[in-house]
Amino acid sequence: MVPILEVHDLNKHYPVGRSGLFGKKRMQVLRDVSLRVDPGEVLGLVGESGSGKSTIGKAVLRLIDSQSGGMTFMGEDLNTIPPERLRALRKDMQIIFQDPYASLDPRKTIRATLSEPLDTHGLHTGPAREPRLLELMGMVGLNPAFLDRRPHEFSGGQRQRIGIARALAVEPKFIVCDEAVSALDVSIQAQVLNLLADLRQSQGISLLFISHDLSVVRFISDRIMVLYLGRVMEVGPADAVHFAPRHPYTAALVSAEPSLKHESRRIRLEGDIPSPLDPPSGCVFRTRCPYALPACAAAVPDLRPAGDGRMTACIRDDILQETAHD
Ligand SMILES: Nc1ncnc2c1ncn2[C@@H]1O[C@H](COP(=O)(O)OP(=O)(O)OP(=O)(O)O)[C@@H](O)[C@H]1O
Ligand code: SF4
Ligand SMILES: [Mg+2]
Fold it and tell me: Whose atoms come closest to the Cα of 304: which ligand?
């Protein structure tokens, strides 16, 4: 099976500050990130603010450049793809943002907003346009009579449905959902999550689902990848990662969930995330890890198999071997 998206050793840094004697200082935002999204699969990406989630989303859509790393989309090498081919592939890769209000043009009617991507790719033109617009409104549960309204006439949840309809308009194969429900009230979050889950089933779309909220990610994802300071800490099937995390950072994220039943396994994170300008040596999580040993500072732990299809980047096999909670 050809993956929808495959990424190998993605690295991204930003130059910061003024040039000094030794050149510009760099802020390394992503370090050796590899991932795969299969057809029809939802890969959840979770991590605290600043861990690099949006940067991954933008890099895989080629909205920003990365310094190194292999990327293929439906088997095509995104690093060497000719610009005209990338333009054509853009139809198949879409993004839904956190703030639908900021990403919707307040002056445009929903009809104009949904028509734009169809015009760009020459789809559903002429008499086929109206039925397509009505179909899209139906797919996201919006009244077709609203087509001529503008964004300010909708609630937050409705606006996010418009954002989803806009992404779906061109029948993409893959959508990056970047904090797509984070700005919504909890009850509306559940409705929009259910809609995305249904659409993913009915349309066979793959999602890279980004959120800082593990419980949201778990609801919709087949597999979950946990990011900390631009590095992958753990990746594997959603249930395994959530119910029996093997990495202390994942365990801490699980612990922070309000539904946790077994208090005894609770891991509280102390301190702040270190600056990406000056990350800890060895394991980047070691300054906040309750299990850190001197050896954790020596080398960056490899991602290695940890049972149940999971990979984890921790040198300690002697901890977290039991189910964290049920
Ligand atoms: N254009 C930029 N120039 C410099 N630094 C940037 C730029 N974009 C992002 N960063 C930095 O890269 C790091 C990762 O940012 P990113 O937006 O990917 O994190 P995130 O995990 O999506 O966070 P959040 O949960 O807050 O959305 C942060 O330290 C951020 O400040
Ligand atoms: S390698 Fe060490 S510091 Fe890093 S998560 Fe494992 S025990 Fe903690
Ligand atoms: Mg982000």
Answer: 2
Indicate which residue's Cα is closest to atom 1 of ligand 2: 314
**What distance in angstroms lies between residue 12's CA and the mean position of ligand 2's atoms?**
23
Give the integer Cα–Cα distance in Å for 301 and 281: 11
Radius of gyration, CA atoms only, the chain: 21
Instruction: Give the list of residues 6+ apart from residue 302 with CB closer than 8 angstroms, or none.
Output: 313
Query: What residue has token string 């050793």?
Result: 9
Answer whether residue 326 shows pLDDT above 60. Answer: no
Nearest CA to ligand 1 atom 24: 49
The whole-angstrom separation of Cα 115 and Cα 166 is 8
Question: Rounded to an integer, what distance in angstroms lies between the CA atom of residue 258 and that of residue 193?
Answer: 19
Q: Pairing state of beta strands 304-305 and 206-211?
A: unpaired
Q: Is residue 212 scored above 90 in pLDDT?
A: yes
Please give the helix or strand (H or E) that residue 13 lies within, else none. strand 5-20
Task: Considering only the C-alpha atoms of the chain, give the largest distance between any 2 of them, rounded to a whole number of Å.
Answer: 69
- Read off the pTM: 0.93
**3-class DSSP state for residue 173?**
coil
